[in-house]
Specification:
157 residues, mainly alpha, Serine Threonine Protein Phosphatase 5, Tetratricopeptide repeat, 7 helices, globular
C-alpha cells in the first residue's frame, strides 16, 4: 500500500512538472516569436500576444493582464473582430480568476457584442467566434452559451 502511494505521488509530481515545463516551453516559444515578428505584421503580433496572455493565466495573472492589455492597445488601431473577441474573453477569464466578477462579465458581454457585429458583417464567422468563446470558457459543444452566461451573471450577484 505504501509503495503504491509513493509511486502515485511520484507520477503526480513528475506529471505536473512536465505539464508546467511544457507550458513554460510554450511561453518561451511565444516570447521568441514575438521578438522576431516584423513590426508591420500587426495581426500576427496581436495573435501572439493574445496567445501569451492565455498561456500566462495559469502562471502569472498580472503578466497575463499585461499581455492582454498590450493586445487591446494594438487592437485600437487594427480592425479585427475575431482577435478582439478573443482578447475580451481572455480579459474576462483573467478578471474572473482575480475574483472581479463584474468586470469579467463586462468583458464577456463586450465579446458577445463583438460576436453580434460579426454576425451582421460576416455571417459565416459566427460559428468560429462562438467556438472560440466556448473553448476559452471551457464549455463543450452541447452546453448552451447564453445559459452559461446567465448563470455566471447570477453567480456574480
Amino acid at each position: 500500500m505504501m509503495k503504491n502511494l509513493f509511486l502515485l505521488s511520484l507520477i503526480y509530481t513528475f506529471g505536473t512538472g512536465t505539464l508546467c515545463g511544457q507550458s513554460q516551453t510554450i511561453i518561451d516559444s511565444l516570447k521568441h516569436a514575438l521578438n522576431v515578428t516584423v513590426d508591420g505584421d500587426v495581426r500576427t503580433k496581436i495573435q501572439i500576444i493574445n496567445d501569451l496572455s492565455q498561456e500566462m493565466i495559469a502562471a502569472d495573472l498580472e503578466q497575463a493582464m499585461n499581455y492582454a492589455n498590450q493586445s487591446r492597445e494594438l487592437l485600437v488601431n487594427f480592425y479585427d473582430l475575431g482577435l478582439a473577441v478573443e482578447n475580451e474573453v481572455t480579459l474576462g477569464i483573467i478578471q474572473k480568476d482575480l475574483g472581479k466578477y463584474s468586470l469579467a462579465l463586462d468583458h464577456y458581454e463586450t465579446g458577445l457584442e463583438l460576436i453580434d457585429k460579426l454576425i451582421r458583417d460576416y455571417p459565416d464567422s459566427v460559428k468560429v467566434a462562438r467556438y472560440r468563446l466556448r473553448k476559452k470558457l471551457g464549455l463543450d459543444g452541447q452546453q448552451n452559451l447564453a445559459e452559461f452566461l446567465i448563470g455566471f451573471d447570477k453567480q456574480a450577484a
